[in-house]
Design goal:
By secondary structure, the protein is of the alpha/beta class. The chain has two domains: 6-35 and 77-110 and 261-332, FAD/NAD(P)-binding domain; 118-258 and 346-405, FAD/NAD(P)-binding domain. It has helices spanning 14-23, 45-49, 62-66, 118-121, 128-148, 164-183, 210-222, 264-268, 314-332, 369-382, 386-401; strands spanning 6-10, 29-34, 38-40, 59-61, 72-76, 79-83, 88-91, 97-98, 101-104, 108-110, 123-124, 155-160, 193-198, 226-228, 233-236, 240-243, 248-250, 253-256, 260-262, 273-274, 277-280, 292-294, 299-301, 346-352, 355-360, 365-367. The strands form eight sheets. Strands 5-2-1-9-22 form a five-stranded parallel β-sheet. Strands 11-18-12-13-14 form a five-stranded parallel β-sheet. A three-stranded antiparallel β-sheet has the order 6-7-8, with no helix packed on it. A hairpin with a 4-residue loop joins strand 16 and strand 17 (248-250). The two termini are 43 Å apart.
Length: 413
């Protein structure tokens, strides 16, 4: 790639791609590294898990992204070591590479909070593999029950975590199960299937206004979801969950949506941490390493900024990635870096057909059909690739408008 400076970006998520996009106009060579050769649109993973969308609908090839930039390179590999002193990145396969600037954007990992059996028996929805695995369990359990009869708890799904992921998963599963039993699995008794949502706090959607959380609970309960707030998961076993109250819930599937924690790379790096994230300064450079930036789920603003953690969502990662690309351009040009300022545009969550909540900037709160339409529009816009946008739009149009005439849902995974 010549004698120009090299920027290595670890992670092809929202932040990593945003950084590469911004670096496209900078006189550097960019190497993006990820163990997958595609970007995953994580906000819609739960729809892949429930067969509302196909995996290809929310995956975008990294090399298709990179073809717009002549200075872009990609390496599919797993990072196993970063030599900060030698400015070198080591991989599971193949030779290491050196860098002049490094952007850490590897995201986070599922956090089981030390609950016994959770890692072994619960299913997360954080990666495409996770979503496909959940989809397989849901589908196979329905077919097995239809053929041999449902065992106790076999068709019960317990979801741990009442945040956006847990609420969206519970609402979608409840609607799809209700429709399936009426159209595709008539031999099954609807009473044999339960959706149980467990949340440690006293309300759902803790990051939203309490009125929106209350609306979400009412909407879920109207769809048949059993919502249990101020309840904890004490232990997860192969076919049941023991709750903190002492209740035992027999279940065939446990979905872990209780939160995320530090990824393996974050834990392995010998860098200052802020509540499990890599400490960065106001310009997103890692404390003590002027040539290293951290963004997204890996980054936490240091003590000078009040130990502030931004939400682990796409907008902060994208904004940070764009700024980092510009910061590197400024450093190469001999200019000072600038301070990062997060522009909070709001948060959204969908509960089901014509039911969603949205908390936008300037205190604007929406719920119901209007929030649902806003949620649909935003996610279509944020998806990468015209084909993906068209495919998801057609799937949603069929699913939400004509589903009673026979849409493809969970069956068939």
């Amino acid at each position: 790639m010549g004698e120009r400076r090299r920027v290595v970006v670890i992670g092809a998520g929202f932040g990593g791609l945003a950084a590469c996009e911004a670096l496209g106009s900078v006189d550097v060579d960019v190497v993006l590294v990820d163990r997958h050769n595609y970007n995953t649109f994580q906000p819609l993973l739960y729809q892949v898990a429930t067969a509302g969308l196909d995996p290809g609908d929310i995956a975008y090839p990294v090399r298709s992204f990179g073809r717009r930039h002549a200075n872009f390179g990609f390496r599919q590999d797993e990072v196993i070591d970063v030599d900060l002193g030698g400015r070198r990145v080591g991989f599971a396969e193949g030779p290491s590479i050196t860098y002049d600037y490094l952007v850490l954007a590897a995201g986070a990992a599922t956090n089981y909070f030390g609950v016994p059996g959770a890692a072994a028996h619960a299913k997360a929805i954080y990666t495409m593999e996770d979503a496909v695995a959940v989809r397989g369990v849901v589908t196979s359990s329905l077919e097995r029950a239809a053929a041999h009869g449902a065992k106790e708890g076999e068709l019960t799904v317990l979801i741990a975590g009442g945040g956006a992921t847990g609420v969206e998963m519970a609402g979608t599963l409840a609607e799809l199960r209700r429709m399936q039993f009426a159209t595709q699995y008539r031999e099954l008794d609807p009473a044999s299937s339960r959706i149980v949502l467990v949340e440690l706090q006293d309300r759902l959607l803790g990051g939203f206004h309490p009125k929106l959380g209350a609306y979400a609970r009412r909407a879920l309960e109207a769809r048949g979801v059993e919502v249990r707030c101020t309840e904890s998961v004490k232990e997860v076993q192969a076919d049941r969950v023991v709750l903190g109250s002492g209740d035992v819930v027999p279940c065939g599937l446990v979905i872990w949506a209780a939160g995320v924690g530090s990824c393996a790379l974050t834990e392995a790096l010998d860098l200052a941490k802020v509540r499990g994230r890599i400490e960065v300064g106001a310009d997103l450079r890692v404390t003590g390493r002027d040539e290293v930036f951290a963004i997204g789920d890996m980054a936490g603003l240091g003590s000078g900024e009040g130990d502030r953690l931004l939400p682990q969502l796409a907008p902060p990662a994208i904004q940070e990635g764009r700024l980092v690309g510009r910061q590197i351009g400024r450093l190469i040009a001999g200019e000072p870096t600038v301070t990062f300022s997060y522009k909070d545009k709001g948060i959204m969550a969908t509960i089901g057909r014509k039911a969603a909540v949205a908390e936008l900037a300037h205190g604007i709160r929406l719920r119901g059909t209007l929030a649902w339409l806003c949620w649909l529009g935003l996610h279509i816009v944020l998806l990468l690739g015209a084909r993906n946008r068209a495919s998801v739009l057609l799937n949603w149009a069929w699913r939400y408008v004509s589903w009673r005439r026979g849409s493809r849902v969970i069956a068939g995974g």
